[in-house]
Amino acid sequence: MSSVTAEARLIVPQSQQMVGLLGVGDSLLKVVESGFPDVDIHARGNEISMAGPEVEVRMCEQAFAEMLAVLRTGQSLTPDAVERSIAMLRGGHEQPSSVLTANILSTRGRTIRAKTLGQKQYVDAIDRNTVTFGIGPAGTGKTYLAVAKAVQALQRKEVNRIVLTRPAVEAGERLGFLPGTLTEKIDPYLRPLYDALHDMIDPDSIPRLMTSGTIEVAPLAYMRGRTLNDAFIILDEAQNTTPEQMKMFLTRLGFGSTMVVTGDVTQVDLPGGQMSGLRIVEKILGGLEDVAFCRLGAQDVVRHKLVSRIVEAYGRFDEERRPHHRNEHRDPRNR
Length: 335
Prior knowledge:
This protein has 335 residues and is an alpha/beta fold. Helices cover 43% and strands 17% of the residues.
């Protein structure tokens, strides 16, 4: 360990907060110790002492202070939340508690919140802009948070309806050629959107809301020719739109509406090497007022820890492979 250059003491005012701060079996304390390996941390009674390199001690002290700020709101801490808080501090964000305690939606006995700085910036962008693009890998909450914001807007009567759509790429959008009723045809492609809705709205009320048109879940092909006023509109899996489909969707925007477009440009499933509308839209709309582009990364993955490591590993693989891939497609005469 580095030589001791600084010390700090934190007095925790209530024994109950001390238990919440350290975690069951000191599980949260162990996370902090892992996050600050160069700091000696000791907890006795209602006091936590820290000693080690000055920068690390100050950051460790701040981490505990931010954890206490979360506990004061009545929210409990988890090891994942503590890890994310430390990551935010190391990334230069001084108040992780402001991210972890910002409620989006309280429903069915649970509260939905942003869990990372990137997610908080994404949610804030949706609040500030008419059209927001959320681009990032699986597990970053792009769709889930967008649906939460849509339900919040509906509950606040900021919109009259929610429209959720995805391109049915595997069916080539030619749903008439598939067997079964319309619902049976589109259900596999729209299931992730239904799953998010079921987390946020009483499942018994969803059929009624869909029958009345308050909530609409439909494939992208069914958006053509419409103007959507006073609606919160989400296009999911947008990497599987062609540039023409992307333009078609964006021009459905009506008065009083909000649009969120989500996708992962590394997971394009378009047939025949077609260009993705999501890949080029920022070149076309970047810098346009009232349009925001938010990029989420492996640090924003909120699934199992291993998912973020998998995302990072694939990212490194793609980066290493890219120069070789380019060389494979060069004209042999120029090699």
